[in-house]
User: Fold these one by one.
Assistant:
Number 1:
Amino acid sequence: MAAVFITGGTGYIGRVLSERLVSRGHAVRALVRPGSERRAAPGCAVVVGDALAAETYAGEVAPCDTFVHLVGVPHPSPSKADQFHAVDLASIRAAVSAAASAGVKHFIYISVAQPAPVMKAYIAVRAEGEALVRAAGFDATILRPWYVLGPGHRWPIALIPFYRLFELWPRTQEGARRLGLVSRAQMIAALIDAVEHPGPGVRVREVPDIRKAGAVR
């Protein structure tokens, strides 16, 4: 069983992931903001700290061997470019620093599907996050969803018929698959698979891989 440190442990993906990992016998430490302790999943060891400041939680990462970074601006949009730098980039810098100082073996990072014709600032920040993970020398799994459907995140469902058409046309097939929609359940399954099956080097999981992991589970 893995010992897993999760940033964003009370978030849209983090709380459900924490709950599932605990139910599967893994030891989970969830980083939460002050005042959010009760929002952590039952069975987690709660670490109170600031995801943007490694020094507030780095000492609590060990002895975890796996680090899952889930902090980011909710509901990304082109109008939030400044927030992407202030939150997404600052938090991945802190996470890489904390994980490296704790001797973490496997780093798991949710990036974003790329390239894409929109959301340039968001993609640039997440690509920089990927570069930080690679430069740190971790064995790592990088997941690249485009949009994760789930509670409070359902508006793109109306686009599913168009995605299916684009996936059938040779000229648009590759882009439609790379920028396809995934469900929160599929993301959780892909993250659990990454935790339970770490591999050497840096592995990138695109939308088709995330869907496949969800289908298996």
Note: The chain has a mean pLDDT of 91.
Number 2:
Amino acid sequence: MKNKINYTWINGLILLIILGLSGCSFYFEYIEELNPCPLCIMQRVCVLLLIPLTLAALCLKSQIKRRLISSAQLLITLAGMGFAARQVYLQSLPPEKVPACGPGLNYLIQYFPLKDIVHAILFGSGDCAEVQWVFLNLSMPTWSLLSFALIACLLIIIIYLLKTPS
């Protein structure tokens, strides 16, 4: 019974974190008018994918289904961490080492082959190295990386709880 309560509480906390991340990303784009780079967009996609998975996790009763959902959540979270880590890396490069800025995502989709679009999305461009916002001396992708790391830790706890008997 205790594991069931912990599972629900932890998933509730994860839901609050991802709703906060999602809200922040839309706030910065539409209110502060900061244009997201390809790596920002991929981090947002990961967060948006986590919302229905976490809602489903809160509704499931079967241990097997909970394990599957938790594993899927962890994989998406690790992907988000990867995108955020790549952006933090690009932002840490000296100006002469930053990759050239590429065209916007809409332009890429309209005029470039799929492999070029995938490369731009997965590896970023010079746009991704620009620091547009800082809080407590940490850039937005650093906060995103820390948030994904916290979610990953919570999911590892959930997976551990699901393996131990109630």
Note: The first strand starts at residue 134 and ends at 135.
Number 3:
Amino acid sequence: MSSSPYIERLQVRWGDMDTFGHVNNAKYFTYCESARMGYFLAVRMSDHFEGGRFGPALAAAQLNFRQQVRWPSGIEVETRVTEIGRTSFKMEYVLIRTEDRQRVADGTGVIVWVDYSVGKPVPLPDGLRESIRVFEGMDSA
């Protein structure tokens, strides 16, 4: 996934480890969350919140754990949007250990655009769709 338009660089913290001496599996989801929030900033998602009424909600998250990571280590989370639907989009993550460039995890997330006042999905704003397409280098549809 070297063509990812967004890469979040993180340092593993001592507190990320579990009693087995490697990064706890829940921390990988936190690493993806950091990358997701950085991606949202990069595509200026907050321009479409309309006073906080609308915004993203993580509807699904899945990760495959490929290798253990120990402190001290660096992680890069390569992030991209691979599908844009009517009310949602799919993100893919690849987590790379910086020391040896090994893939340590990969997965996906589905983000739904929600009207928070009623708690229901609504269509993605056209401007947000276009911003993601431009950032990703996708053809407009």
Note: Residues 25-42 form the longest helix (18 residues).
Number 4:
Amino acid sequence: MKKIMLFFAFVSAIITSNAQKAEINWMSLEDAVAAQAKEPRKIMMDMYTAWCGPCKLLDRNTFQNTDVANYVNANYYAVKFNAEGNEVVSFKDKTFTNPSYDPAKAKRRNSGHQLAAYFRVQAYPTIVFLDEKGDLITPIKGYHAPNQLEIFLKLFATDKYKEVTTQEQFQQYQKDFKPEFKG
């Protein structure tokens, strides 16, 4: 009887765990820009590295959150980009590479990619937000839990950021903001 109860508890835990996880539809930057031409949306770009602990937490705790994933998928084109990788990227009529990339350091600290520098990424993780034309809105650095990221996702998706242009206005926006995401 104990084995049966343990089995059902285990299955229930798996079902609950899977129900709370969702998938963001990640794509390349080139694919996101091409998608923008057909259906304009903003781009949310996760700039991560292979060795970054907070990047892994962001993936596990925030990007797999159902509320976050559903909101991102409905309002953004999502791009995941290794900011120390060796991918060749064409963006805004420029080619970005990582000329100092060392394949022997693929799983640890490596040189920064030119695209990361272009978007002013100075720490990992950084989430870069681009408007419907692929122009930089702003980079947001650091780990953010789902309810912490929600304020930025909604600020940019709704164009409210165009009205919130000072630190005081942002502080008021934060004060008035009613979070809805769980987790």
Note: The helical segments are 2-19, 29-38, 53-63, 66-75, 114-118, 146-157, 167-176.
